[in-house]
């Protein structure tokens, strides 16, 4: 399938929030809630996308002509590209009733694994969401990352038991989900965690733990102190707080603070292989991309996911070749230019 075919198909079945735009930049959905928009004016989601555009790559083909290796090794697994599908929950509410979370994750997890990457899966107030997500990861021989919301200790423990049974190679918690409107005043409760509370969760997890939702160097150091193996520099796609900086703006200072001591992933407005290259140049080890994978599944199921993965991977490989980087380790900060 082509990207155009995937988008055309997706527009026939997406719900009222996502428009299936050729480029997912936050402008069409803006502040529509609870869909793919944002709080307030939708400022942060739009800023995420635009700040990657302000970074330019430095072309340099005066170098040895060698094959380009885009593979990433993390937590004992090797992936074809430093790209992961981001977690999305309640897809039937946010994106259309063609799929529920169980069907969506079954397609996404399997298709990502088949194409050399892994998917993060979402969580929700319905326990079946995590149950179905971990079942899909189990069928993919653990090639996925369940993302648990910051529930109370008892609920987190119950969900972690599902994670362990799935054989997942890592687990994540989207700490920034504490700002989602639908999590407020819930039973069970959900919300922010102290370093001490997070440390207890991480210690009990039994697999590498990823803290998603870090936006400051101070926050990264707190995640490190709690024992996290990795962080995701993320503002929840710009949905949880208006007037935040973009992830591209804070990534370099976070990488300077904890780079080399833990893995750093980043999401928010990353839409092509050049963006992936920019993120790695600024200090990330890999990236998460969420909304375009939703469109890919709705518009083409497994074929749609394959089209997206291979397109972004091909763009990354081409950018690396044109900038003189033949492996991810050779991508350096001087290969991008910020204005």
TrEMBL record:
Cofactor(s) annotated in UniProt: FMN
Organism in which the protein naturally occurs: Ventrimonas faecis
Matches recorded under CDD domains: alpha_hydroxyacid_oxid_FMN
Protein known as: L-lactate oxidase
Recorded coiled-coil stretches: none
Top-level taxon: Bacteria
Reaction catalysed by this enzyme: (S)-lactate + O2 = pyruvate + H2O2
UniProt keyword terms in alphabetical order: Flavoprotein, FMN, Oxidoreductase
Entry keyword Nucleotide-binding: no
Residues in FMN hydroxy acid dehydrogenase domain copies: 37-339
Family: Belongs to the FMN-dependent alpha-hydroxy acid dehydrogenase family.
Record-linked Gene3D superfamilies: Aldolase class I
UniProt keyword Oxidoreductase present: yes
InterPro entries linked: Aldolase_TIM, Alpha-hydoxy_acid_DH_FMN, FMN-dep_DH, FMN_HAD
